[in-house]
Amino acid sequence: MSTLDLFEGLQTPTQAIESLAQQACVLRGFALPFVEALLPALDSICAAAPFRHMVTPGGFSMSVALTNCGRLGWTSDRSGYRYSAIDPTTEQPWPALPTSFLALATAAADAAGFPDFVPDACLINRYQPGARMSLHQDKDERDYAWPIISVSLGIPATFLFGGHHRADKAQRVPLFHGDVVVWGGEDRLRYHGVAPIREALHSVLGAQRINLTFRKAG
Ligand code: MD3
Ligand code: FE
């Protein structure tokens, strides 16, 4: 029996899919049955590849701290944004994608109608109160046909879901511990961001929000 089979029992009950747009949806609480497996794996990743505040090409330090796991990791510095197989801080490969992470990502993609999704990159963002992410598009991946899966853990956030132009009015979508959002197709290149995180305490994660985004980057 493969390790992945151990997670096949972790099925959330059939649930309403909350639609945000034609090919974007929220699966409320979808990650909850996986959390017990995700958190120790997250601790191991952060021990090997610590959270750090990267610098943007414009020279600003990001308020969100990040790390990665999987074959490719997203990085930023003065010379640009890119995916890299090597962590610039440790000069080692990023930690492997844990089986529990992979099981959650593929199950969520399946539930949202994107079969055969095998991510090679998991960006792990850490938001402490006050941290935010301004409106941007995700354009650093090779093939925009693959969806992006986002998993929210810890204190709540207001996700900003915009249009195809930066000036388009953004919908505000509250996201809570365990929520999963899936974006694909025509919605894959929408502008999006995260409003400044409000002070709060989560019983397990404390005063932070952790967001996992799974992608096929390479
Ligand atoms: C909608 N992260 O890392 S994840 C990012 O909560 C990022 O940390 C946010 O945006 C976070 O790039 C939002 C959800 C997300 C990711 C990619 C998208 C939403 C998206 C691509 C297109 C549209
Ligand atoms: Fe993004």
Low-confidence stretches: none
Mean pLDDT: 95
Q: Which percent bin holds the helix content?
A: 10-25%
Please tally the β strands and state the result: 13
User: What portion of residues belong to β-strands?
Assistant: 25-35%
Which structural class do you get from the secondary structure elements? Answer: alpha+beta
Largest sheet: 7 strands, antiparallel
Enzyme class: oxidoreductase
Catalytic activity: a methylated nucleobase within DNA + 2-oxoglutarate + O2 = a nucleobase within DNA + formaldehyde + succinate + CO2
Binding site for substrate: 74, 81-83, 140, 166
Cofactor: Fe(2+)
Structure, explained:
- This protein is α+β, with helices and mostly antiparallel strands.
- The chain has a single domain (15-215), classed as Jelly Rolls.
- It is built from two helices and 13 strands; from the N terminus they run E-E-H-E-E-E-H-E-E-E-E-E-E-E-E.
- It has helices spanning 35-48, 99-111, and strands at 18-21, 24-27, 65-69, 73-77, 80-84, 121-127, 133-136, 148-154, 157-161, 171-175, 180-183, 192-194, 209-215.
- The strands form three sheets. A seven-stranded antiparallel sheet has the order 1-2-11-8-13-6-3, covered by helices on one side. It has a four-stranded antiparallel sheet with strand order 7-12-9-10, with no helix packed on it.
- Strand 1 (18-21) and strand 2 form a beta hairpin.
- The longest helix has 14 residues, at 35-48.
- The chain starts with 17 loop residues before the first strand and ends with a strand.
- The structure holds N-(carboxycarbonyl)-S-(naphthalen-2-ylmethyl)-L-cysteine and fe (iii) ion (FE).
- Fe (iii) ion binds at residues 136, 138, 192.
- Residues 123, 125, 133, 138, 148, 150, 181, 183, 187-188, 190, 192, 194, 211, 213 line the site of N-(carboxycarbonyl)-S-(naphthalen-2-ylmethyl)-L-cysteine (MD3).
